[in-house]
Design goal:
With 177 residues, the chain is mainly α. The chain contains eight helices and no strands. 26% of the residues are buried.
Amino acid sequence: LYNLELSEEIEGFDGQAHLSTWKNDPAWQGVRENVERLTGVRDWAEAFFATALVFEPLVGELFRSGFVMQTAALQGDFVTPTLVGSGESDVAREQRGARALFGMLARDEEHGEANKDVMARWLAEWTPVSIAAARKLQPVWSQPAEKAVRFEDSLERWTQRFEDLLSDIGLETPKEA
């Protein structure tokens, strides 16, 4: 989506270059697998949960905020952080909605414990996939000539954010995180 936006904003920007990276670059294959699996989830609640509360903090935000927003300007790119920053507000809104919905389900007097069991199963399934995808992105942090932040520092920050989101809902952090 960001490449499409950049194609519209920057004359001569090759919006197709990302396809080769998406399909072939080893660093992106974990993310690709994660996204492709998410698009195949038939249960809307699981899909929303896994996307908003697992994938986004552990992979999406890690890359956008932990890498792009930290390094783009240092490389002379002032357009990308503006576009990514506007997308971050959409993600924040979705996460607020997910936190409210799943928190309500977890605190339900009659079904809360059963709901938390279901969410724990989702966490057990999706957390390792997202952590593996995040870890495969590590080489991306090494590419810029001028480095703003280390991968492990970024991953630690967004893993903590993930744990905070789960705690707000009333869920335990899986051992994989």
